[in-house]
Prior knowledge:
eight-stranded mixed sheet; single chain
Amino acid sequence: MSFATVNGITIGYDDEGTGNDVLVLVHGHPFDRTMWRPQVEHFSKAGWRVIAPDLRGYGESTVVPGITPLPVFAADIVALLDHLGVGGFVLGGLSMGGQIVMECVRSFSRGIRGLVLADTFAQAETEEGRRSRHEMADRLLREGMSGYATEVLWKMVAPHNKEAGEHVSRMMHAAPPAGAAAALRGRADRPDYSALLGTITVPTLVVVGSEDEYTPLADAWYLHECVPGSTLAVVNGAAHMPNLERPEEFNKVVELLLAQA
């Protein structure tokens, strides 16, 4: 566990392993960097330096109320990597983290050697979706995280994955409401990354849980078809969090991507 001050905030992060091969992992909403613990442990032992930050508003990073657009998250990640002296790296993210990865490609593509886009989608929000995200942000500020976390747990994680469910529940209940609300408002106004996908030239893995209701297989196919030469992997028996629900299967497909990067 380490801390760095960048862009006027403090970021908590894990930085494990050594060497010039760097894997950077970006968590989703409303989670924190501990969602990547199986990957940090596995890949750091496999010879990779693995960096997993808490996004602003989550975990041990500074909570900034209001609105946090995806470019702000992306700028924080790049600033942290500059602070750590990281040059080339493979960048992966899940759900909101995958959208932040796409924003990094759009704004700060230098140094990216490969991409992992897990359980995410590229399109801009619909008008109904925008309204829903703002309403949920209001609710989190009004009620806290517990009601929301209880309602969505078994959509985040398939019901038979009890251990992963306990981990996801802890993360969601612990998320700061102001940080989660700011991220929701920022995502409501995200751009459409579809055109960007066709410009990606680095090795790219698209991975999705077979039972994911939030970003179903159709969304993963869309990403796969848009990114030239990408690989699509479906993790059977997992919902929205395949890296936690089926870590061995998830790690195997990521290993294939890392061998190309």
